[in-house]
Amino acid sequence: MDRIKRVSLFFRAVFQILFIALPVILAIAWITSPESLVIMGGVINMSFIPRPYVNNILHILTPADRLLGFGISSIPMLIELYILYSLIKLFGLYSKGEIFSVNNVRHIRNIGYALLVTQVVNPLYEGLMGVALTWHNPHGHRFASVTLDQTNLGIIFVALIVILISWIMAEGCKLREEQQLTI
Q1: Residue 18 CB partners (closer than 8 Å, separation 6+)
Q2: pLDDT tens digits for 9-37?
Q3: Domain coordinates of the chain in residue numbers?
Q4: What's the per-residue H, E or C state across the chain?
């Protein structure tokens, strides 16, 4: 049990760092856009402009374009922050030794639903980003792209499994409570 608590504290700290770093990195990335954000001498190379638009922005991004891009990028980021928040709470409970509880079930279920929501929001995000980034292009060179691929289907499948696991854990919690009340 002590090992579970230590590992859970470690992951809780990692998720807390990511929770703080994600918005900061997103803001810095949009300040430097359309260039990629290079961290650690090129070990990490990030671009928050969706791939279909990188070579199709035919104008210099103005500060207003960057602010709009940041705002649109914040939509999926908020969902990611909610997932990180749920993971922080979940691993906080694990670090206290609370393994099978209704609170854990709630956080796991919320993560599953948030993963599903990301797959609904992603096409909207990509379309809005295309409009925002190519709006100032010459006529005939503006476009929006929405992609769905096996990654999206994989995340939907994982989300459904996470929701199923939360349901199974909820039933396990009920059985455990019944056993504790039985003499």
Answers
A1: 84
A2: 999 999 999 999 999 999 988 888 777 77
A3: 2-181
A4: CHHHHHHHHHHHHHHHHHHHHHHHHHHHHHHHCCCCEEEHHHCEEECCCCHHHHCCCCCCCCHHHHHHHHHHHHHHHHHHHHHHHHHHHHHHHHHCCCCCCHHHHHHHHHHHHHHHHHHHHHHHHHHHHHHHHHCCCCCCCCCCCCCCCHHHHHHHHHHHHHHHHHHHHHHHHHHHHHHHHCC
Is the pTM here over 0.90, yes or no?
A: no
Cβ atoms 48, 22 nearer than 8 A: no
**What is the chain's alpha carbon radius of gyration, rounded to the nearest angstrom?**
21
Phi-psi region of 97 (alpha: psi -120 to 50; beta: other; left: phi over 0): left
Q: Which residues of 153-181 are buried (b: 16+ CB within 10 A; e: fewer)?
A: eeeeeebeebbeebeebbeebeeeeeeee
Six token digits for residue 23: 């918005």
